[in-house]
Amino acid sequence: FYRAWHDGEIFFLNLLRLWRLWRVSEFFKRLEKDTRFSYFWTRLLKLLGVIVFAVHSAGCFYYWLARHHKTPANTWIGTAVEDFKHRSVWLCYTYSIYWSIVTLTTVGYGDLHAVNTGEKIFNMIYMLFNIGLTAYTIGNMTNLVVHAAVRTFAMSYKQEEVLQDLPKAIRSSIAQHLFRRTVEKSYLFNGVSEDLVSQLVSDMKAEYFPPKVEIILQNEIPTDFYILVSGAVDLLTYKNGTEQVFLSKLGAADMAGEIGVIFNIPQPFTVRTKRLSQVVRISHHHFKQMIQPQGEDGKIIIANFMKYLQGLKEDVLQEIPFLTELLADQNQKPTEQNEEQQNRETLESQDANPEGRTGTSSLPGESTIRVIIHGHHPSEGTSSDRLGKLVYLPDSLQDLFNLAEKKFGKRGSTILMADGSKVEELNVLRENDHLFVV
């Protein structure tokens, strides 16, 4: 009976043992639901097991077809190995597994190929099966990668959803615990009052960004700036719209986008995450509302901001044309007058419109405004080699002519607006108007 079981007609009853595979499948299902084990690695191990089982089963069955053929030499392995029935089983197994893997990966070297009709039929069935197995494997691998990315966004949504369901007082306490220390470490709010920090932190929103994602795009309207809680981001700029230039790396407690918000100019840099990063966002409008009533805190913030600008690298300053000249003008003014005036002027935050223009000042008592002067006619355009100069508007037209002569090396006699209209009085000008001295 033993011989009949292994070599006789009832040999195929051994296939009933494959029912044990159902237990293996159930085992992996339990592991995938067990929080003590990584879902990613459990799923990956299951996929690897399916592939190994398919390769092994196909190789063994292919060898079985050759061994039970009436003419051993007229088989796929008989043409490569003479008298293979009397050779080592491991040698034959190596040949069969080699054929199975080559066929599964669709390489098909052709050194081992079907010879008789039975082998050709099995080859066709196996290749059709491989189409489904390949699709199954690729689909599951894609699902694992997407699952990891979706989990990052789900983390932020879940945290925000939980916070929204809590009372405002509890939300504020949680925000103070999570983000207060980070805000206090940031350079812009160094030394400000406890009340201002509490007001800012209480309304902050945390966001998560996976690696290689742009948080801020160059030249976009400045609606928000960010404080990095954890992770790392790169500060980038683009030359001629395509060439990417790395400027610096930002870490925890560093800020991004504040230059565009405070100066109310298009964002000068692109900010891209290096790895999974958590940031807190402060909106332009909310920042303006918090700062305007705080006179002393406003002076501290502007002092911190100007100190930060003076410490920027040369390659960063070159990306903001007016910044170098603005810092030079600040150094030329008396220290006492400069401190009080600049605290008011730089805190002048305007709501950005879709065209990127700014409105009038909302701070009471503001008399000095900034304008951009050009040394050519407005019809000649503003190309990259004819960038304007950001200056403080003088008290008279004569002073403006003198300033333009100093900046451009030639004296003009007429001041025109961008639409060609002539400027007769300075008190009709607005913040960031473009003036053409010809």
From TrEMBL:
Similarity-based family: Belongs to the potassium channel family. Plant (TC 1.A.1.4) subfamily.
Family annotation (CDD domains): CAP_ED
GO terms, molecular function: voltage-gated potassium channel activity
Domain named Cyclic nucleotide-binding: residues: 188-308
Pfam families associated with the record: cNMP_binding, Ion_trans, KHA
Biological role: Potassium channel.
Keyword Transmembrane: yes
SMART domains associated with the record: cNMP
Membrane topology term: Multi-pass membrane protein
Cellular component, GO, one term: monoatomic ion channel complex
Entry protein name: Potassium channel
Cross-referenced Gene3D superfamilies: 1.10.287.70, Jelly Rolls (2.60.120.10)
Region (Disordered): 329-365
Sequence ranges assigned to domain KHA in this UniProt record: 370-438
Domain notes: The segment S4 is probably the voltage-sensor and is characterized by a series of positively charged amino acids. The pore-forming region H5 is enclosed by the transmembrane segments S5 and S6 in the Shaker-type (1P/6TM) and contains the GYGD signature motif which seems to be involved in potassium selectivity. The KHA domain (rich in hydrophobic and acidic residues) present in the C-terminal part is likely to be important for tetramerization.
Main location: membrane
InterPro entries: cNMP-bd_dom, cNMP-bd_dom_sf, Ion_trans_dom, K_chnl_volt-dep_EAG/ELK/ERG, KAT/AKT, KHA_dom, RmlC-like_jellyroll
Location of the protein in the cell: Membrane
Key words, A-Z: Ion channel, Ion transport, Membrane, Potassium, Potassium channel, Potassium transport, Transmembrane, Transmembrane helix, Transport, Voltage-gated channel
Subunit field text: The potassium channel is composed of a homo- or heterotetrameric complex of pore-forming subunits.
Keyword Transport found: yes
PROSITE patterns found in the cross-reference section: CNMP_BINDING_3 (PS50042), KHA (PS51490)
Superkingdom of origin: Eukaryota
Transmembrane segments: 44-65, 88-109, 121-139
